[in-house]
Structures are given as C-alpha cells and as structure tokens.
C-alpha cells in the first residue's frame, strides 16, 4: 500500500484529491496538511511514501517544504501554476515530480505510483520546456564528482538523463530493477543530489547524452 500525505491550503481541493487517491486499491491517504509547515511536521511523523505538495500555501511554501523533506520521503508537486520559477525551484529543492492540477485523475494516481517506485514524473508541458532549455544551452563543464562514479553508475546516470524509468534502465542495461534502484541510490549519494530529476539535469549539463 502506497501511503500519501496531501498538502494543499484549499480544503475542497484536498477533499477531491483524497477522494481520487483513496479510490485506488493500492493507495492510502494517511494525512492532510493545509500549509507547508504542517506538511513537514506530519511527513516526519507519519513517514508517507509520497507527499502530494501544492506550491502556493500560507507560511512555509511548497518549495521550502520540499527542501526540508529531502531524505524523508518523495515529493510530487501538484500546482495550478505552470511557471518556470516554480518548476525550477521545485526540482532544485528535490521534488521527484511536477504536475498541474488539470491532470486527469487516473494520470495523477499513476504518477503517485511512479514516484513511490522511485521514478520521476513531469507534466508534458514542463518536459517540453526543459528539453528546449537544454537544447539551447551549451554543455557545462564535467563535474569533478562524476569521477567518483563507477562505469556502471555513469551508464545509469546517462539513462536518468534520457528520462528512463527503473524498468526501462533495467531492460537497457540487462540488470534487475532492484539492482537499478541500488545504482540510482548510489549515484544520488555520490553526487549529493536529492532526486533522480536532479540527476537527469546534471547528466544533461555535463554533456553525457
């Protein structure tokens, strides 16, 4: 069972999200928070698999809350606002995914499953913009931290940069998903990254693709 905490300052929206998520056989909403500070406190107490996080909330916003939850649980940002500053802020803070509230119910549940499994999820419009930004920007210098990676870990990082899921990485490299998860975890640790999305960005910046 995937345990989810819903954080949104609008009670009606929280109620709708809870209804959608609890309608899935493998998802259970374990708590609701009306602001980022409460989300952080509840996540540390309840240890959900995924926090569904709004961005614009009173007090501590969703981006700062996501930053504080690094290493505690996966964060899937769900917001009305498709703004680059929010996208970049959320991903730099360590969010595993970024979706818009216009997403279909089935797609939202599937995204929660993917994030809980360790994969990253981005709204199609966000993905297109990020790809365009990467295409327009020249590769940055190779980070020295990459030298700490094994050849296999570099291969896994390259796959992350291509946006592949754990299952797809396993098929491409002919290794099991459990092994893939181990390699991804080691890559994130060695590169001091908070999410596979950040790893994908680094792979693009370093010109590994």
TrEMBL record:
Domain Response regulatory: 3-116
Transmembrane helix recorded as keyword: no
PTM sites of type 4-aspartylphosphate: 54
Superkingdom of the source species: Bacteria
SMART domains per record: HTH_LUXR, REC
Keywords: DNA-binding, Phosphoprotein, Transcription, Transcription regulation
Pfam families, alphabetized: GerE (PF00196), Response_reg (PF00072)
PROSITE patterns linked to this entry: HTH_LUXR_1, HTH_LUXR_2, RESPONSE_REGULATORY
Keyword Transmembrane: no
Matching InterPro entries: CheY-like_superfamily, NreC/VraR/RcsB-like_REC, Sig_transdc_resp-reg_C-effctor, Sig_transdc_resp-reg_receiver, Tscrpt_reg_LuxR_C, WalR-like
Residue stretches making up the HTH luxR-type domain: 142-207
Protein name stated in the entry: Response regulator transcription factor
Source species: Saccharothrix mutabilis subsp. mutabilis
